[in-house]
Amino acid sequence: MLLIKNANVFSPEPLGKKDILTAAGKILAIEDSIENSLFKTWDAEGKTLTPGFIDQHIHIIGAGGKHGFASMTPEITLSELITCGSTTVVGLLGTDGSARSIKSLFAKTKSLESEGISAYMFTGYYGLDPNYITDSLQDDMTFIEPVLGCKIAISDFRSSYPTEIELLRILRQVKVAGMLSNKKGIMHIHLGNQKIKMDILFKLVQEHEFPIANISPTHVGRTKELFEQAIEFAKLGGMIDLTTGASKYTEPYKAVLYALEKGVSIDKMTFSSDGNAGLDKLDENGNLIGFRKAVINQNYLQVKELIHDGQVKIEDAIKLITKNPATNLGLKNKGEIKLGADADFCCLDADFNLIDVFAKGKQMMDNQKVIVKGFFE
Questions:
Q1: CATH class of 53-329
Q2: CATH code 2.30.40.10 region(s) in the chain
Q3: Which of 11, 125, 159, 311 is deepest in the core (most CB within 10 A)?
């Protein structure tokens, strides 16, 4: 059992100064004052406590490979995730469904769970050809607990150019599997930069009347034109995901401010990193000189910019990496500080710098020093 004292709590809604009692990785009590000398106590005086951060799109087993095997990025480590406050992650495959295995993705997901954080995954990859652990997407979701849905790509030359009927058949499996397994079920959609943008997704919702909550487009900030369309998708009730660690037409926090001006609710937007994806390293003339990994630490840094530069309230800004992705993924015990929720916390100092991290009730980072590392670190 752990008793956190004197924390300025944002759940993400502001609760004021509270004491929080946790046990077995869950929140047992949230009170103005809890006194008990039997509990291990951690004093959060002067600190802001938020839910642990969620990264719903990150390449935990690596990605890349567009310039041969040597351009493939390595697996991510626990310390890298803890350093940026990510206590919950969703791993997925990218373009590569050959050298990267869906079974290896499952193994890494379970490994991160063993090391102390919460990890989930999407089955499938860019293509339409089956790339599942079992015989089907529906069986993966139904029988494998960490599988929350599937990934597919559209409007990209690396995709399989799926038709609306093919996407509807995928969505049918997602929806039925979600019903059977008591999961929300989402089709997580990589968006490229082709001119068709999100046209096909509007057809799924408006012409075929498929529930928009099960359709999860990402990389919506890739181009200005794509983001304008994403704004309309959000106004229909969809959740749109802005990538913070890779290609984008403007800084993600500025895209959020623009969407807010256009009437999009803050509750309909999320940040994810696309972290650990393989990117080109170019010289000043645009020549390829090497490779680099997409950064994983920009989710919260973009939230900080929303607070400082955008003057967005902390309880609203923090939703983009806590409550909103939890809602999108259907994770009822994540993204909020409430009774019965998982005891995942991030602590911020007076300048909103991330200084402490707790996952499942266990402290993982203390005063910006990672104190729990992966088994092979």
A1: alpha beta
A2: 2-50+336-370
A3: 125
